[in-house]
């Protein structure tokens, strides 16, 4: 434990205003460092109100210069907050930044404990641990790696399109990968967008077209990312291009094949199950790219071996039944994930009868119904396809803000419901009931829209609907859907007859979000949404450098926010590209080959394939460019031949010693 | 012993999940027992069983290992390796006559400040029930006794 290297260590204890000093006796910690740890090489210990302030940092710099400190310990907040600040302060004073340690006595002590005495004792132990550790620290050099100027954007919804266009317009190349046959995402299915009521297609299709024809955007639809290797600046991504059964270079997008195809199937995708498409199809006439795909599960040729009508009718002989999936590997420097959301399955709320009661619709079905290009040409009709309803009930929060399903608010459903109320009123003049728990209209011009819908005469009922049923209790209820609800504003149960019910279903993380997260090395929150690096200050970054997130992949969002995030993520990527190189933490493992016995235990432990066995010399070697610094091989090496910088055995063992010094002193 | 036994616990945390959960617990002012002292590693896979033995022999009464949930490891799968080592170490501890319950493994993601707080508090209680390990104390006493009996023979240094 004793310091035979005769170090000169400076210890700086921060008050953090009163954040630390209200629970930890800062002076006691300072005195302990100065007196108790003098034998360990502590030559100066100070406390200061705000160590991270300019005068606080200057204090350290001055001591390094004047006292010749060769190690620094700052007892303050979490290293995730200010480690870089103090490392830079040391660097400015000429000390290698990695000879500075941060001892967290705020997040890990003063903020989580109330007993002053116990907190002070713990703070002393934490500081001792840091002092013992810093003695073992070694000067390290930062690693710089070049950044590949190309970018991968995953997901071609509005957030992904926006991000891709921002980067492409700045003159940098983008690979835009979309697993559906067309870009556009959920927004392409909508009719109007709140609160301005512009038509979704009118504002989205120009962006889709621009992305599809941009010289800097390599658009890969009907494709999926299957593998991601490498690290920030140097990712190598494998993309699977699923067969369209059509040669894109020959297809002119004339749509004759679609017209001639004899097989009609219910479109569960774009038309949300209320319309039809052919077995060879594009999602819509505005699809980008214009090329159709063959749905092999429903195609006569693929199922029965006969038909080939599309092949016969194609004027350019573009149909190719033999097409196979292709794999493409591309190098990119940064990745933006804009993978969007899934819709809540309304069948789960069985008391609302979706899937059982024909005239209960989901919000996405209603969007398609309202759309002039949709299956009913924009007519609001019941499931029979012809009867116009007289009374419509709209139910908010289906699957959201509900402990049985998702406890979070889906953010857009209030405004979506208000939009539906307006559209129904405008087109049919029907009586509209809107059943809400709380009305949430916080964004620009949202509440004004609510006021407008109120004035239009929609009837608002505050309460969570208990049940939607077609079981009539009396003759007047025959043929109606009865909505059972407690009107919490009058404190009474109500039973309201309507002809049509629209369920405003919430947003859910993609069903495969976890797998996607694993593929790209990012985490999901308890609810399954991707986790941001910092929820407030860095909502478009992830814990993995070089991987950014935009749009609803991190949680429910409206269109303006998704677009803003797309632009923000693009700005961050452009910032990385402009820098040209990125600095990596020099936390790496290396093999001391003189000690390596060639047992190869470490070889299979590395998930990044950074360890190779040199057959000629019978020893293992670690590629520093591939090593991510987890340290698993260091811990596993039976010969102790692998060492890890930044977290070496000596550093950790010394820290444990320091953390327990009070116990060992008491036992002695 | 009328005074309540206050165990000392070393908690190994992963830089990406549990240490961030501890940060979150701090930011949200969640409270937990002050008996726990944290060591930050880059990954639970870095955890050399020697570290645990070092902690126990150096005066700790229990060790809490925390890492990313299965399938969520920042380094893909290294938490599984931590788990394997922990399972093996439990058998070694048993062989040494140390209750394997003194070394616990738990998974906490970066968003689970509440879970970490609960795990720490319950572990402190579990170790309080176990009582002091006193490995270090006994070692010190043995050393003294040995040197008293054989004043010429130097005490055996036990280092792990």
Keywords:
heterodimer, A: 668 residues, alpha/beta, Rossmann fold, Alpha-Beta Plaits, 4 domains, 5-stranded parallel beta sheet, 34 strands, 23% strand, B: 160 residues, 4 strands
Characterize the structure shown.
The complex is a heterodimer of chains A (668) and B (160). With 668 residues, chain A is α/β, with parallel strands linked by helices. Chain A is built from 18 helices and 34 strands. In chain A, the strands form twelve sheets. Chain A has a five-stranded parallel β-sheet, with helices on one face. A five-stranded parallel β-sheet of chain A has the order 20-27-21-22-23. In chain A, strands 2-1-3-4 form a four-stranded parallel β-sheet, sandwiched between helices. In chain A, helix 6 runs parallel beside helix 15 and helix 11 runs parallel beside helix 12. Chain A is globular and about 90 Å long. The mean pLDDT of chain A is 95. The mean pLDDT of chain B is 90. Chain B is globular. Chain B has one domain: Rossmann fold (3-Layer(aba) Sandwich), CATH 3.40.50. By secondary structure, chain B is α/β, with parallel strands linked by helices. Chain B has helices spanning 18-27, 49-57, 78-95, 113-130, 135-149; strands spanning 9-14, 36-41, 62-67, 103-107. Classes of the chains: A alpha/beta (668), B alpha/beta (160). The interface between A and B is large, with 59 and 53 residues.
Oligomer: heterodimer
- What is the string of helix and strand elements of chain B? EHEHEHEHH
Percent of residues in helices of chain A comes to: 25-40%
Low-confidence stretches of chain A: none
Counting DSSP H or I runs of 4 or more residues, the number of helices of chain A is: 18
